[in-house]
Amino acid sequence: MIKSNWMKALIVAGISLLLATGCSSGNVVKIGHQPTSEQTILAHMLKQVIEGNSDLKADLVGGLGATPVVLKAMENNDIQISAVRYVGTDITSSLGLEEFSKDPQEAFDLVKNGVAEKFDQLWFPSYGFENTYVFTVRKELADKYNLHTISDLASHSKELSLGTDSSWLERPNDGYQSFIKEYGFQFGKTTPMDIGLVYKAVDTKEVDIVLAYSTDSRLKEYNLVTLEDDKHFFPPYGASPVVRNDTLKQYPQLEEVINKLVGKIDTQTMTALNYQADIEKKDPAAIAREFLLEHGLIQK
Question: Is there a single domain that holds both residue 161 and residue 94?
Fold first, then answer.
């Protein structure tokens, strides 16, 4: 009886270990992502495009925190693919650089080469969009003052109120004081607030202009107009997948498969996809599948 129980326990332990390792002896890659709609949708796209175009399987590891958490998971080989990393974020956090070129191509080359040298990871070309800071106004205000770029605000700035998160007002390199020096004007009033509140605040005319994120679904929800950063004040935040080089060596087909998503998703498209998840409450996996099918990247 004791021997029988011992054997049962051994079998259960073996099954548990198999489940914990994703029921795999190989040919499985793990994709890590942060808990935003944007990252979750793109993680599902990667999973589906990998499984639909190769003999590999992909598991998702969600709920990862800030970039250092994702990076640590990559270094520990807990995940082999970061679903989304942003150029400006990695330059300042992972590479620890305080000064760098704001030219998009130069910044991309810097982060690609830096991440390869320091972490032995491949930074892929962008999905096709940036998730960067944008100044945003109501459409009626954009029409009234013919606003298209940030520079267009100069002649009206004294009569406009700005809503932004308090940290941006105080940041030394790309914060408000540096902005004033770069563009040569300041707003009549600044109102610090939680970043999640700025969209409603500009919609209800509590403020006239807000600093927002370029792919946030609430831009579409409130029909807000984003202004071009014509002096390239904000760092580039191009979004890309990143993969461990030893994983690419083990599964060389991965690079070609992942490259199928390169350049396929512009800012307007990503905003619309986020809108489907955040506002329409659609399942991120379904959103990803619909996009991939529409663009012929997977088969039914």
Answer: no
